[in-house]
Amino acid sequence: MNTYRKRLVIQDPKQVVLVDLPFQPGQEVEITLRATDQESKNLKEELRTLFQKTQQLPQVQTLTEDDIAAEIEAYRNDQ
């Protein structure tokens, strides 16, 4: 299944016009409309900031790839 994403600003809430679509005449498609959410944009930025702060913690600086792999393996074995 091919997915095509197009962002646009609603000019008239009674109709949406899509042009230059990469589909063939007669091809059946499914349309999903979703409003972009400022809250989700803010959440993404908050998470990015949190991750950057977390990565700077001293205890995180001492972790090795082997430590991480061992923790993942231990978690998988407990399930």
What does this structure look like?
The protein is mainly α. The protein has a domain of 41 residues. It has three helices and no strands. The longest helix has 18 residues. The radius of gyration is 22 Å and the shape is elongated. 0% of the residues are buried. The mean pLDDT is 89.
Beta content comes to: under 5%
- Specify the biggest β-sheet: none
What would you call the structural class? Answer: mainly alpha
Strands, count: 0
Mean of all residue-level pLDDT scores: 89
Order of helices and strands: HHH
Radius of gyration: 22 Å
Keywords:
79 residues, elongated, mainly alpha, 3 helices, 0% strand
Topology:
Blueprint: H1 38-55, H2 58-61, H3 65-78
Short description:
This protein has 3 helices and no strands.
